[in-house]
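Question (not urgent): is this output format expected?
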Amino acid sequence: MSLARSLTVAAALSLFAASAFAYDANWKRGRIYYRSVCTSCHAAEPVGSINPSSRTMAEWTAYLAADKHAKGKDTVKQYLSKAYRAGIKSSNRAAEKFADVPDQELAEDIKAFLLKGAKDGDSPASCS
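Got this back:
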């Protein structure tokens, strides 16, 4: 097999692999989870509710990439995990509703909602 053909096959395989894992985030599902789970928990804490419009898209992207919640005391992923949802489902209907959603899909959904509702997003949102 020639080098050019090998590179073409490799490129095609990498495109296939990337498309096999592609997920089209659902910002509406992210909004429901964020408002029903994240906001309900934050409202009970001294920090209070955190509206998507309180940060820019770049700030939300950096926050999610850093994966540090509560000033680094824990991770954002922890609160999006199936284990967390299972732990609160008896007191939170939304957590029960999303019990079987893969963690990565839910993370992408929430990110889509936060970016859409950011200060500089398509539709700045509040959660009040």
